[in-house]
Amino acid sequence: MHKSTVHRLLSTLVDKGYVVQDPVTLKYRTTLKLYEIGYKRLANVDLLTVSKPHTTKLMKLTNEVVHLVVRDGNYIVYIDKIEAENTITMRSAIGKRNFMYCTSAGKAILSCLDIEEVSRIWNSCEIVKKTPNTITNFEDLVKELEKIRKVGYAVDEQEDEEGIRCIGAAILNKEGKVEGAISISGPAMRITKDLTEKYGALVKNTALAISRELGYIPKVAL
User: Which residues of the chain have pLDDT under 70?
Assistant: First the structure.
């Protein structure tokens, strides 16, 4: 742009408080007012609205049902469900509550909590062995959560319901705290162990994309 145009725009931004000029260097820089606008925008972001395009895309990529959950005390609550085109449907429903320790989305959320909080949740829950694969030993759960933190996604290895395998990942907010989780679910004969890593990456990347829209900034390893 022409210098006079740039100067006119800068003058307006200075007048409105978005930009200031350094009296020594005469260079311009943005003010915290822009940050305030961004923060207000993030404060009004709705998890369900933000996640919908991403979970819909995930469903199309996997052709499996996708769930969005949030934590409610010691449980997870399903707040959205994107049905797949497969003939086999899941018996889950929006508003349903479930345990965290035996679901992929629940374990993904637990992996974001400190050990004291995980222990408190475990000790205040009735641990039910819903299937032969359900984790009912706390030490085993701790090991499972360590694995989840390393790979970035959780697997429900037919722990909540026999014949059903689920893969979930946590959603983080602008403060880096867990906001919820997403998961894909389907018959174990269709979501095979061979597909776990591939689908795990898709779920993890989808959760990260949602997290970014909520204001989460991933830490960069030095």
Answer: 35-45, 86-92, 220-222
- Domain assignments of the chain as residue spans, ordered by start: 3-43, 47-213
Pairing of strands 75-82, 65-72: antiparallel
190 three-state secondary structure = coil
Give CA–CA dist 187/94, Å, rounded.
20
Rounded to two decimals, the pTM is 0.79
Instruction: Specify the CATH number of the domain 47-213.
Output: 3.30.450.40
- CA gap 181, 10 in Å, rounded: 43
Give the list of residues 6+ apart from residue 26 with CB closer than 8 angstroms, or none.
Answer: none
Alpha-carbon gap, residue 202 to 187, rounded angstroms? 18
Structure tokens, 149? 């933190």
d(CA 210, CA 47): 8
